[in-house]
């Protein structure tokens, strides 16, 4: 028999609508209902409306009814860009940056990503699984119900495969859904120093077919940056990935403008991420392409760099998503409350745009906007209950976690 739950008397329900990313000014159009109700059947939303209307038409005799008066409800957050699996930490680099060292200087001198590669290669799969589970549980407590996770701290065959396999295992043992991305193109491994083209060939011939065959990743990503991979090398990898049926992503124009956004529009990639230094041409190209502009304000904050031009991107008609970029180097935080604060207070995004960016557009950035990212019939019931009666508290109660309950596929999976 079907399992039916009805959430009633929701003080404020706030959600974007649709099964695809919302672009430009449509990002600001969200649905807000008061005294709302949501009907969930077997983990799927089947009806949404005002409480009186829903109760008069729902088959309430078989349903579990829950009163959410006094609380707002929003869709589960989708963190569409993270590096949440890693070994070791790099606090000494953070301290060096505070004293003026730059991220790229540290990277070029063998610290940075290479530093984490060394500690990740030394980890066991069990350790990685334990840490991963703990980090996902922490994300869940801030309302994250789906998360993208990148490999990229192994670079060699064994560790890259282990990272992707651990993500698969995590999907079986805890509620946050993880979408795995192969980021072998995160850095040129020490054993390929000076031979970046050969490393690109190795990924194309030895890694992509294997990962495809074992269905270990949905996306392929590369760090296109001065001193890392060139736009040409990135294009070679991403086109090969795309022809094998992978979705594609690119770390683009994070520290220098190297044509990453233009490339993302040309491929086209599912998303172009970072974009702190995007060119005017890059903005125009992304606006007229299907690629989503994924902005990572916590990274700009931690690196003390200017934020990506969110306002310009949205005004040009782009689809913008927001994500944490959680990693041990450039951004050792996955704070959703901080992300809301930075987007609204420092990037000039409206609160409805920010909500859209972190839900529906985040879902689109991982190819799942048909199933998650909004509260409407047909979508998976991934929902976040807030302490206060309005979603405006997500930014008004600055950088404080508002989440008191998380519902995943219709089931309460976190509650305080
Ligand atoms: O998105 N820029 C490349 N990758 C990460 C940083 C990874 C690291 O420093 O460990 C980022 O910022
Ligand atoms: Fe990243």
How would you summarize this macromolecular structure in one to three sentences?
The chain has 416 residues and is α/β, with parallel strands linked by helices. It contains 16 helices and 16 strands. Strand 7 (144-150), helix 6 and strand 8 form a beta-alpha-beta unit.
Outline type = globular
| Overall average residue pLDDT | 97
Helix content percent band = 25-40%
Cα radius of gyration in angstroms: 21 Å
- Taken as a percent bin, the fraction of beta residues is 15-25%
- Count of individual beta strands: 16
Terminal residue distance: 30 Å
**Number of helices, counting only DSSP H or I runs of 4 residues or more:** 16
**Largest sheet features:** 8 strands, mixed
Enumerate the distinct ligands: N-(iminomethyl)-L-glutamic acid, fe (iii) ion
Q: Which structural class should the secondary elements be placed in? A: alpha/beta
Question: Which regions are unreliable across 5 or more consecutive residues at pLDDT < 50?
Answer: none
How would you characterize this protein structure?
The strands form 2 sheets. Strands 1, 2, 3, 4, 5, 14, 15 and 16 form an 8-stranded mixed β-sheet that branches. Helix 7 packs parallel to helix 8 (231-243). It is globular, with a radius of gyration of 21 Å. The chain has 16 helices and 16 strands. With 416 residues, it is of the alpha/beta class. The structure holds N-(iminomethyl)-L-glutamic acid (NIG) and fe (iii) ion. Residues 83, 112-113, 116, 223, 251, 254, 299, 325, 327-331 line the site of N-(iminomethyl)-L-glutamic acid.
């Amino acid at each position: 028999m079907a399992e039916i739950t009805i959430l009633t008397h929701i003080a404020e329900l706030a959600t974007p609508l649709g099964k695809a990313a919302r672009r430009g000014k449509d990002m600001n159009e969200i649905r807000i209902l008061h005294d709302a109700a949501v009907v969930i059947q077997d983990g799927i939303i089947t009806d949404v409306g005002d409480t009186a209307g829903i109760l008069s038409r729902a088959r309430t005799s078989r349903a579990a009814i829950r009163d959410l008066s006094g609380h707002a409800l929003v869709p589960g957050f989708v963190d569409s860009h993270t590096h949440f699996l890693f070994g070791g930490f790099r606090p000494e680099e953070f301290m060096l940056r505070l004293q003026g060292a730059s991220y790229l200087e540290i990277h070029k001198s063998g610290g940075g990503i290479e530093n984490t590669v060394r500690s990740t290669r030394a980890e066991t799969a069990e350790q990685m699984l334990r840490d991963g589970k703990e980090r996902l549980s922490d994300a869940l407590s801030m309302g994250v119900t789906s998360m993208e996770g990148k490999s990229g701290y192994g670079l060699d065959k064994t560790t890259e495969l282990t990272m992707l396999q651990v993500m698969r295992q995590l999907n079986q043992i805890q509620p946050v859904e993880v979408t795995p991305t192969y980021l072998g193109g995160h850095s040129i491994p020490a054993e390929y120093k000076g031979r970046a083209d050969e490393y690109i060939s190795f990924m194309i011939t030895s890694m992509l077919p294997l990962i495809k065959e074992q269905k270990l990743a949905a996306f392929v990503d590369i760090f296109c940056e001065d001193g890392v991979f060139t736009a040409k090398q990135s294009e070679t990898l991403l086109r090969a990935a795309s022809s094998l049926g992978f979705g594609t992503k690119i770390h683009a124009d994070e520290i220098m403008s190297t044509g990453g956004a233009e490339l993302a529009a040309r491929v086209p990639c599912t998303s172009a991420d970072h974009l702190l230094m995007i060119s005017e041409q890059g903005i125009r190209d992304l606006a007229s392409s299907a690629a989503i502009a994924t902005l990572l304000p916590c990274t700009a904050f931690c690196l003390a760099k200017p934020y990506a031009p969110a306002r310009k991107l949205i005004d040009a008609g782009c689809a913008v998503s927001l994500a944490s970029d959680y990693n041990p180097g450039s951004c050792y935080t996955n704070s959703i409350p901080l992300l809301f604060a930075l987007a609204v207070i420092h990037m000039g995004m409206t609160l409805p745009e920010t909500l859209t960016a972190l839900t529906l557009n985040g879902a689109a950035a991982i190819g799942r906007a048909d199933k998650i990212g909004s509260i409407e019939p047909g979508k998976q019931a991934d929902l976040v209950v807030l302490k206060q009666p309005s979603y405006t508290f997500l930014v008004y109660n600055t950088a404080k976690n508002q989440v008191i309950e998380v519902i995943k596929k219709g089931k309460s999976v976190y509650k305080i």
